[in-house]
Amino acid sequence: MVGFREQEVSMPQIDPWEKAADCERALRITVDPIRRETLSNIREFWIALAQESRFLSDDALATQIETIGRLHAKLDREMHA
Asked: With 0-12 CB in 10 A as exposed, 13-18 as middle and 19+ as buried, what is 5?
């Protein structure tokens, strides 16, 4: 249990469900159809990851979070540019 606790402290926890909710909130205020489609897809990625996360190793989960997070961040940057 000590190893888990150390990892929890060293790696910020990202909740895929919360990220999916972020996408849902953004969808409510986005009118551009292309951005809506992209947000919808990213939301589905976060939901799928949340559902699968208990079956993934910590490394695999971290890799998936990083990958989806990059897509999400890129979209955020484009929306605010």
From this structure: exposed
